[in-house]
Amino acid sequence: MNHYFILLLVTTAYSCQLDSECSSGEICNKGQCDHKSLFPMTGLEVLSTFLIFSMSGLAGASGIGGGVLYVIFFITMFNFNPSDAVALSQFTMVGTSFTASFIKIFHRHPSRNRPLIDYDIISILISPLLIGTTLGVMLNITSPYWLILLILTAALAYLTSSTVISAKKHYIQESQGLCNSVLIKDDIEEDLNPNLQNIYAIEKQILPLKNILIIISVYILTLFSSLIGGSKTFKSLAGIEFCSEIYWTLLGLFIGILLVITLGCSKMLIKKYLVKVSYGYEFDDKDIKWDNKSCIIISCSGFFAGMIGALVGVGGALVVSPVLLKIGIRPEVLTATTSFLIFFTSTVSSLKYLISGKVNVLYGLWGLAFALIGSALGVFVIKAVVENYKRSSLIIMVLALALGISTISIVVYGIHSTISQDNDFGFHDYC
Q1: b or e along 367-397 (b: 16 or more beta carbons within 10 Å of the residue's beta carbon)?
Q2: Which residues constitute the signal peptide according to the record (predicted)?
Q3: How far is Cα 404 from Cα 189, in angstroms, rounded to an integer?
Q4: What is the pLDDT of residues 371-429, one digit of tens each?
Q5: 10 Å Cβ neighbour count for 151?
Q6: b/e code 46-83 from CB counts within 10 Å (16+ = b)
Q7: Fewer CB within 10 A of the terminal residue: the chain, N end or C end?
Q8: What is the enclosing helix (H) or strand (E) of 34?
Q9: What pTM was estimated for this model as a whole?
């Protein structure tokens, strides 16, 4: 009988003499059962590689990262336990999100002369997302596998239904001609207020400097915090003892700084929005109206997205996307923005899991490489289809399809593993 849930050898030193005494996907190495090397590959591993390539196209086009799909592949075909599979899925998502975000950086908004990626949304989302990611990684390490699968199933079921409703609503609006906006032309801007002209000029930039500085600063702060804090298997660069009082103090300081940055970004966006209104700025009908309520909703969704994403390996975009769709953001802007966001959060999660000793690097790089290629193909294909049919609701449909496949797959796998496998029901010690 195959065992999809592999006991953590760090805590249970299972001894062996022959490979046949180990679980499927393991070999006997110096008296202990370790996961087999990537090569030579089994038939299921070849199939899983093809599926990662195919599904990364779907994930790149929909902007969700594809984490949950990768988790399932790494569990059922590469024979990793759910906790390690989550860590490997983060590595794979780096490939998916890097390609998708790099391509979309140069795409323009469908109705305004500005980038397709909404860097304002990223600026306010990135800090709470990384706070949630930090806590999610800790929960993943300590949680039993059945709990990870249960949370994953519940989250996917809700998000799938929510996205299907959004897709239907957007499709109806397109059919009624309610999603069309007039493009602001450059030759009109000469007659505008100089302050308003300056706003339009700044928005034309491919990479807005202020937003990029905020994003990179938060990113570097998070990486620095991970390297300074260390883990069970990675010694702190500052010599800090893992789980000591200094460790928890620095972690609290890191979270506090990110909270302050979130508050500062909220005030900046509200002020920026009010200034635009006062100058008579021509908003797109799908632009976010920044106020205290929208800032709180988006920040909170970012926190829970980061935590759930890191806990179960789904990628924060799965949680954030339905929230942003409900607010009214354009699907094209949504997928571009979340792809860019996923790249930062998945690299942070990957580093944290790598530091924690949870990542089989060769398998992680293998998945990353095929996700890079597949994602690029998916982005170009869906862009061509949307432009041909003039229906951006197709993007939401692709997102709903990806979520639906993920939900059905994880439910089937969860039932099968519960009935036929020996599962680990206990919590694990973080320290």
Answers
A1: bbebbbebbbbbbeebbeebeeeebbbbbbb
A2: 1-18
A3: 45
A4: 888 888 877 777 777 777 777 667 677 767 766 776 776 666 666 555 554 555 667 67
A5: 16
A6: eebbebbbebbbbbbbbbbbbbbbbbbbbbbbbbbbbb
A7: N
A8: strand 32-35
A9: 0.69
